[in-house]
Write a structure and sequence with these properties.
The chain has one domain. α1 runs antiparallel to α2. The termini are close together. The protein is mostly helical and about 70 residues long. It is built from two helices and no strands.
Length: about 70
C-alpha cells in the first residue's frame, strides 16, 4: 500500500494554506482600512470565508476521497 502525497505538495507556493489564509486576511483588513464601512467589509469577509471553506476544506477532502478510490 503506497501513501498518497498531500494535495499541498502538488501545489505552488501561492496556493498553499498559509498563502490562502494570509491573502484572505489581507483582503478583509484592507477593505476595512481603506473604506471603513462595515456594510462593505462584512460581505468581503463572508466571501473570504466561503473561499477558505472551498479551498481549505472541500478541495482537500475531495482529493483524499478521490485518491482513496483509485
Amino acid at each position: 500500500m503506497s501513501v498518497q502525497p498531500s494535495i499541498w505538495s502538488e501545489k505552488p507556493w501561492w496556493c498553499q494554506p498559509w498563502s490562502i489564509l494570509l491573502t484572505g486576511l489581507a483582503v478583509t483588513a484592507g477593505s476595512w482600512l481603506v473604506l471603513q464601512r462595515w456594510w462593505i467589509t462584512a460581505p468581503v469577509a463572508a466571501a473570504v470565508l466561503v473561499w477558505w471553506w472551498l479551498f481549505l476544506v472541500l478541495v482537500p477532502r475531495a482529493y483524499r476521497q478521490q485518491s482513496g478510490e483509485n
